[in-house]
Amino acid sequence: MKNIVIGITGASGSVYAIDLLQKLRAITNVRTHVILSPWARQNIEIETDYQIKDIQNLADEMHQFKNLGANIASGSFKTDGMVIVPASMKTVAAISMGYSDNLITRAADVTIKEQRKLVLVPRETPLSVIHLENLTRLARLGVQIIPPVPAFYNNPQTIQDIVEQQTMKILDAFGIQNEVGTRWEGIQHE
């Protein structure tokens, strides 16, 4: 059984987190631990047709944003890693500086110190030098940065096609077998 922590921040793009949770729900050997920031809660209701109770139903375990005493706030609680999707630049900056004032940033700090897989899906454009420096600092520590950049080789027909391509990338990062998106098959020359 894999334990994956999923932090959802207030950056635009909560649909990426929802799709990831839906796909993980269908995989029987993965247990999800979800943390919603206060702004994530607002964005889910602004950007989607989902309610917070829908997210709670997709998660195996929900954690309170300010609960620094949660099991996932300790390195002794074994996880297979964490993804923050979407990752706000505020959260990226806090993680980069080791500022753990909430459960998302604390769980990320634990993930880094325990040398477990940490994936960030940053949602910001354009990126300032400050954003890039924070992301670079984290990448040097082994954090995988997977921005939601759409692929067009797969000829997406819907927004859902674009979202699923991102979900495929996140699942791949955790070594979770999936058939979510369309993979590049190469060009056949004769």
Automatic annotation (TrEMBL):
Entry-linked HAMAP family: ubiX_pad (MF_01984)
Keyword Transferase part of the UniProt annotation: yes
Catalytic activity: dimethylallyl phosphate + FMNH2 = prenylated FMNH2 + phosphate
Sample GO molecular function, one term: flavin prenyltransferase activity
The Flavoprotein domain, residue ranges: 2-168
Species in which this protein is naturally found: Candidatus Ligilactobacillus excrementigallinarum
EC number: 2.5.1.129
Highest taxon of the lineage: Bacteria
UniProt-annotated binding residues for FMN: G10, A11, S12, S37, S88, M89, K90, T91, R123
Protein name per its UniProtKB record: Flavin prenyltransferase UbiX
